[in-house]
């Protein structure tokens, strides 16, 4: 099964901001304990590479690097053990470097022009970011009409209140979000709270998109 198919079956990609390798490892443990062994560790802090490397040692986390904006960050992420790359925008340099490494890359795209650029570079899955302020589920449905073979990973403003809107769209491979990672719980090291919040998120996604329905459809789309 490909990385993108595994992302699709997970339905949710937790967006992780770690201030240290130790914190990243603790977050990954809480996510896995909650039934979601997936993490997109963002390059929003200097600890990103170290956190990715620490989490990669586990071997059981579907591990990506997010907020990747330069080819050097691609190199650092892959060297640390990232299995896929996520970028907030459409960068030819980032896409080409990721492809050179042979790892999947999900570039950010919210306009028809950006999607066409992504398609020209040989990709068909994009990160729709920032999702809510870029038109939300309605915008994805509109873009999916002319771009029927494109799949989307909406991130930014996605949470329990609107999760159903996104997961109901066949072209949505999964959603990215951090609502299962409460900042206050992480600051206090209350990992049981993170695990509980993760379990709730997993259960909600399972109710909204049963594997026998939307999840299999989305997985089939990215497998093509």
Describe this structure in words.
The chain has a single domain, classed as TIM Barrel. The strands form two sheets. Strands 5-4-3-2-1-8 form a six-stranded parallel β-sheet. The chain has a two-stranded parallel ribbon with strand order 6-7. The chain is globular and about 45 Å long. Helix 4 (71-80) runs parallel beside helix 5 (92-101). It contains eleven helices and eight strands. It has helices at residues 3-10, 21-33, 48-56, 71-80, 92-101, 112-120, 136-144, 163-167, 183-188, 191-208, 211-223, and strands at 12-16, 38-42, 62-66, 84-86, 105-106, 125-128, 151-154, 175-177. With 224 residues, the protein is α/β, with parallel strands linked by helices. The protein starts with a helix and ends with a helix.
In short:
This protein is of the alpha/beta class. The protein has helices at about 5-10, 20-35, 50-55, 70-80, 90-100, 110-120, 135-145, 165, 185-190, 190-210, 210-224; strands spanning about 10-15, 40, 60-65, 85, 105, 125-130, 150-155, 175. It contains eleven helices and eight strands.
Question: How are the SSEs ordered, and which strands pair?
Answer:
Elements: H1 3-10, E1 12-16, H2 21-33, E2 38-42, H3 48-56, E3 62-66, H4 71-80, E4 84-86, H5 92-101, E5 105-106, H6 112-120, E6 125-128, H7 136-144, E7 151-154, H8 163-167, E8 175-177, H9 183-188, H10 191-208, H11 211-223
Parallel strand pairs: 1-2, 1-8, 2-3, 3-4, 4-5, 6-7
């Amino acid at each position: 099964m490909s990385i993108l198919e595994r992302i699709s079956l997970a339905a949710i990609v937790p967006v992780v901001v770690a201030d240290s390798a130790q914190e990243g490892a603790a977050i990954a443990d809480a996510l896995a304990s909650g039934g979601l062994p997936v993490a997109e560790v963002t390059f929003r802090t200097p600890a990103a590479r170290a956190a990715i490397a620490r989490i990669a040692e586990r071997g059981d986390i579907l591990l990506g690097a997010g907020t990747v904006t330069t080819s050097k960050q691609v190199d650092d992420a892959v060297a640390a053990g990232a299995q896929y790359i996520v970028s907030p925008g459409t960068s030819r340099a980032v896409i080409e470097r990721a492809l050179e490494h042979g790892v999947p890359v999900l570039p950010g795209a919210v306009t028809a022009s950006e999607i066409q650029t992504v398609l020209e570079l040989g990709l068909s899955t994009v990160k729709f970011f920032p999702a809510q302020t870029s038109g939300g589920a309605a915008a994805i449905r509109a873009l999916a009409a002319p771009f029927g073979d494109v799949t989307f990973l909406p991130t930014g403003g996605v949470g329990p209140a609107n999760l159903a809107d996104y997961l109901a769209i066949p072209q949505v491979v999964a959603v990215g979000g951090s609502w299962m990672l409460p900042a206050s719980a992480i600051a206090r090291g209350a990992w049981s709270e993170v695990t509980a919040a993760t379990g709730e998120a997993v259960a909600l996604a399972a109710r909204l998109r049963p594997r026998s329905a939307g999840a299999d459809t989305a997985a089939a789309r990215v497998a093509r």
